[in-house]
Amino acid sequence: MGTMKAGRIDFGTKEFRVKEVPIPSAGPGHVRVNVRAAGVCLSDVHLIDGLVAPLRNADAERTLGHEVAGTIDVLGSGVVGWTEGDRVALQALIAKPWGVDTMGVDYDGGWAEYVVVPQEVLVAIPESLPFEQACIVPDAVSTPWAAICHTADVQAGEAVGVWGIGGLGVHAVQLLKMIGAAPIIAVDPLPGPRQNAVLRGADAALDPTDPGFAEALREINGGRGLDAAFNFAGFPGIDEQILPLLNPAGRLTIIGLSGRPLTVQNSVALVAHQQRILGHYGYQPPHVEQIVRLLQWGRLDLSQSVSAVLPLEQAQEAVRQLEAKDGDPIRLFLSP
């Protein structure tokens, strides 16, 4: 058995490094995928810095990477409907009786030359879709899509605010534009992400640290607040800023992780106006398939989401750039 390079983290010590490990074998019902592109997500950064930790096996060592695309290299016994060389993206979530197993957390991910996954997570991708764009469909695009159309159930004509215009938030803006939300107000303290949001379809982009922020947001919407708001940033204080801006029956959907308590300052208003605070995690297989079809039929364009591609050996540098927002990257990618 040969070896390969992989970006590995020891969850117990939080030590991360790229090292040589054995090439995995594909067991029954599994396939081995030759990784062609793997996204670097803020969740990966938080796993390394310790803000996010596995719910199980907290001392395990894992290969990171939950946004992966490549070609099938080896079929395990019992795998049907696939052939070697097929182009695929990999769903990162596997439903289990005890919850959800996440690639790169509960089992080895795709910051490696090869990754082994169950056949049920495979999603066929067309030749027209580059691997870099395909690999972010499960997570960076499917997660906001599921949050918008399933958890928050946003309808055409609803006023929506998006806090945090990073790798997920910028795609949320695109998707909200596609389904007819109006107006779409992007919120980010950095000018680069605000500019990206306007280019992707936001009707306005505001700085949440501006003293006149709340007044400016309501002025954009004719004195009204928001029907739906999404927190993709995960920084403390964002949810508390959003709640007073919700209209009656408004929904706050929290995707970004802060690890801090959330305080509802006015519970009477929350109850009287029948507002809702919703948590959202990940996506379901149909959401991934929907996004692939939207891309295939030209309803969605992810070409501007590829900020840079780095070799796998520079995984630590990619993490640094994303954490420091060096160059305001939308998505960085690793290529084995």
From TrEMBL:
One of its GO terms (molecular function) is oxidoreductase activity. Its cofactor is Zn(2+). The keyword Secreted does not apply. The keyword Iron does not apply. Pfam families: ADH_N, ADH_zinc_N. Keywords: Metal-binding, Oxidoreductase, Zinc. Residues 12-327 form the Enoyl reductase (ER) domain. Belongs to the zinc-containing alcohol dehydrogenase family. This is Zinc-binding dehydrogenase. It comes from Mycobacterium asiaticum.
